[in-house]
Amino acid sequence: MTQSDNSPTVPVNAPQTGDRKTRIARILEQDLQPEILRIEDESHRHAGHGGWREGGETHYDIVVVASAFTGKSRIDRQRHINALLAEEFNTGLHALALTTLTPAEAAERGIA
Asked: Would you identify the family this protein belongs to, as annotated (predicted)?
């Protein structure tokens, strides 16, 4: 994977230990140091649809509130998270519903 200077660095052969939700949390916490991080496995809502598989861990709803997003567009925030989770996508993660906010944006929306 080619990365630009501002792209996140993720070990290509990162060990796949723990469940996917735990690995996602660890990756996002390490890189973004979020004030708020909520991760919900919504795979059951996609049963029988593309990318779904028995056992879940394919579709997640993630809310991240982090100062690291300040000055970045919504698409840049989401691209950053997708790049961080590239290995998870390579091993069965199919889709993310992402809410990516700065602390000020979260306060405006009443997210705590």
From this structure: Belongs to the BolA/IbaG family.
Q: Report d(CA 33, CA 109) in Å as an integer.
A: 20
Sign (positive or negative) of CA dihedral 89, 91, 95, 99: negative
| Nearest alpha-carbon partner for 87 in 30, 10, 17, 28 | 10
Look up residue 5 and give its DSSP letter. Answer: T
pLDDT tens track for 38-49:
999 887 565 556
CATH number assigned to the domain with residue range 20-109, chosen from the 4 options 3.20.20.100, 3.40.630.30, 3.30.300.90, 3.40.50.300: 3.30.300.90
pTM for the model:
0.75
Pairing of strands 36-41, 59-65: antiparallel
